[in-house]
Amino acid sequence: MGGRGLYFWRDRSREEGASLFGGPRFGGSRGGPLGGKKFGNPGEKLTKKKWNLDELPKFEKNFYQEHPDVARRTVQEVEQYRAGKEITVKGHTCPKPIMNFYEANFPGEYK
After folding, report:
1. Quick one: where's region Disordered (predicted)?
2. Does residue 25 fall inside a structural domain?
């Protein structure tokens, strides 16, 4: 320890008004270890993907078939689920909600 004593750094910081980490004792600089450099927006250098729609597989949007687990749900279960998730439904022929991803019954290539 070189004769400085066990509490050298603590005593030094009190005398000089500095913390153990080299900055001012109270408040400190707001720049942090990077000196206040700004980082910009995350992803700002990403480029937008240009999709060739002719190369994408055709996606049929009317493939939904109610999963057996969804079909078995009672009106009370559906109402309780919607109330718990604050879901408002308008109309009379709305499908029951799916509660798990597998219940969406996506075709094999979309699972």
Report:
1. 19-43
2. no
Domain count, the chain: 1
Q: Per-residue pLDDT tens for 21-75? A: 555 555 555 555 555 566 788 888 889 989 998 988 877 788 789 999 999 999 9
Q: Does the structure show a pLDDT above 70 at 76? A: yes
**Could you tell me if residue 93 is inside a domain?**
yes
Cα–Cα distance, 60 to 36 (Å, whole number): 51
Buried-exposed string 78-98: b where 16+ CB fall within 10 A, e elsewhere: beeeeeeeeeeeeeeeeebeb
The pairs formed by 46-54 with CB atoms below 8 angstroms and a separation of 24 or more are none
- Give the whole-angstrom CA distance, residue 41 versus residue 54: 33
Is-contact 43 76, C-beta < 8 A? Answer: no
- How much is the pLDDT for 99? 94
How far is it, in rounded angstroms, from Cα 106 to Cα 59? Answer: 11
For residue 103, give its domain range: 68-110
